[in-house]
Amino acid sequence: MVIAGARLYEVALPLREPFRISGGELVVRRSLIVALEDESGLVGYGEAAPFELPFYSAETVASARDLLRNTLLPRLVGRGFATASEVNGALRSQVRGNAMARSAPETAWWDLQAAASGTSLADLVTNRLRELGVADPWLRRLSTIECGVALGIPRGESLAALRDDVERALERGYRRIKLKVMPGWDVEPVRTSLEIIRQQGSNRCLTADANGAYAWPDDERALRALDELHLLYLEQPLPEDALWDSCALQATLQTPICLDESLTSDSVARQVIAMAGPTVWNIKIQRVGGLEEACRIYARAVRAGVRLWGGTMPETGLGAQPMLALGCHAGFVYPSDLEPSDRWYPPGTDLVQLDMDESGMMAVPETRVIPDLTGKAELVAEFR
Predict the structure, then answer these.
(1) In angstroms, rounded to a whole number, what is the distance separating the alpha carbons of residues 253 and 296?
(2) What pTM, to 2 d.p., does this model score?
(3) Is 284 considered catalytic here?
(4) Marked catalytic residue, from 29, 178, 284, 368
């Protein structure tokens, strides 16, 4: 398949309410959309969804825009690619890091393949996993995915506001509640949330996500206090580059440690297994640079007995499509971070509408989904 043209768009979708994690706050989802076109006129779409400031990763919307416009898209146009591995190689050549920027054209290529073959993205993913040697039980797919909610740190760190958020999440039907935590906002919010869940007689599970806000062993006391609350898992308590420390911390806690920001590639996944590190992993398509690398991590994880779940940035509904396609496979055992469009955006503003039923389940598309960019996307660059 020859890439005959490419377009780069920017979108700015206001959130219904601010979303705060330990490193920063999001009030508008600024995102980059890549459209790749083949010689017959078919178009595939992908998304790069870093934040405006580098509080989650080193990438920003501005850095991704620059790399896509000046380096990545020009090197794809006019070239033919037979496999996702070839596309991945072209995007990685002489480019270190910048996984989110790379994920947009990489997932756009997958979407273009789905358009050309008249199949779903999930079918393409299953085929690729089979090529990577994934055994049949782990190729099994579900038609729906469990949805979990990620609750940000309330402004003013209000426990009353947190109570309202948890109660609404339970009423809505989410299968898992995740609290964003940080030093000073951790044990009491978790205790409060557990009390509400028990009072309502709910069987919903609770997790906490620190986004790398703690240090080891400096914050040992706070981490041990969280450990005593018996969470399903504690997500990324230590910074991204503290991989050895994360393995050491796991050996001292009963609560499973979940890797998020640290899990940047299949190479890192291999090393975590070799170090007998955490065995709960959050796979994010954006964070690892696209579906090809995510498929490789999935293949390694299921062979090693790692328990997986699917994460989001969050992206728009367009950016969620690759996670839906991968996350419906049997190796994903915990509820995902996928949430309906109306959780984040005002009605009618998302690029692809995502819906969740009253039991907290989201359907996996049986056919390819085309985003609505009309009046929502600004053209930044075009290549022919």
Answers:
(1) 29
(2) 0.96
(3) yes
(4) 284
